[in-house]
Amino acid sequence: MGRRILNDALRSMVNAERRGKAMVELKPISTVMSSFLHIMKNHGYIKDFQVYDPHRVGRITVELLGRINDCKALTHRKDIKARDVEAYRLQTLPTHQVGLCQ
């Protein structure tokens, strides 16, 4: 598992929605995951989420709306120089049309 906590949580949510579940429980948790879920809630992709015992192992229960088609996190990490960041971003990340509509 290691540093793929967010990716595993997003895959669990997508799989639960494909099975028609109304709720999913995510373990382990991180502050990045709760921040990402807050953004998803503001954009209307999930109904609500509750964080239980965040100072220990913790868990998050998410109420799903059925609006998530596919959701992934970028997990590949690569050491690059600061001057090469922009070229790497343009080469690796998807276009601006993919994702949230602004």
Portion in strands: 15-25%
**What's the pLDDT, averaged over the residues?**
84
Q: Report the span from N to C terminus.
A: 33 Å
- Series of secondary-structure elements, N-terminal to C-terminal: HEHEEH
Structural class: alpha+beta
Low-confidence stretches: none
Counting DSSP H or I runs of 4 or more residues, the number of helices is 3
Task: Based on Cα principal axes, name the global outline.
Answer: globular
Biggest sheet, open or closed, and with what strands and sense?
3 strands, antiparallel
Relative helix content: 25-40%
Assembly type of the shown chains? single chain
Count the E strands. Answer: 3
Rg over C-alpha atoms, rounded to the nearest angstrom: 15 Å
Strand line-up in the sheet with most strands? 1-3-2
Examine the secondary-structure arrangement and name the CATH architecture of the domain at 5-71. 2-Layer Sandwich
The first-level CATH class of the domain at 5-71 is given as: Alpha Beta
CATH domain topology of the domain at 5-71: Ribosomal Protein S8, Chain: A, domain 1
State the gist of this model:
The chain has 102 residues and is α+β, with helices and mostly antiparallel strands. It has helices at 5-18, 31-42, 85-92, and strands at residues 23-26, 46-52, 59-64.
What is the secondary structure topology, with strand pairs?
Blueprint: H1 5-18, E1 23-26, H2 31-42, E2 46-52, E3 59-64, H3 85-92
Antiparallel strand pairs: 1-3, 2-3
